[in-house]
Amino acid sequence: MSNIKEIINTWDPIGLFPFCPDDEYYSEISQIETFLSETKGEKDLGEYIFALFIKSFGASIFQRSMTECCIIARKILEI
Is residue 21 helix, strand or coil? Predict the structure, then answer.
């Protein structure tokens, strides 16, 4: 999980750092890790990340694009 955590925390999709603890995205990181055991496709993972952060934080707070989520998915799959 530490590699996924590093990628997500560096991305900081809703701009929490440096104001929040580094485990702020723990739930989402854990869910991504579980999803990875089921699929390996970049597009599927990107769509999952997009939907996950919308569900967790709402569309008014999470304002990243699907394209950006697919880029993050690619980085995760490369580790």
Answer: coil
pLDDT for position 18: 85
Q: Which of 22, 19, 33 is nearest to 77 (CA)?
A: 33
Distance of CA 48 to the CA centre of its chain: 9
Among candidates 22, 20, 15, which has minimal Cα distance to 61? Answer: 15
pLDDT tens for each residue of 24-61: 999 999 999 999 988 779 999 999 999 999 999 999 99
Instruction: Please give the Cα distance from 27 to 77 (Å, whole number).
Output: 19
Token readout for 35 is 């999803």
How far apart, in whole angstroms, are the C-alpha atoms of residue 18 and residue 74? Answer: 25
Q: How far apart are CA 40 and CA 61, in angstroms?
A: 27
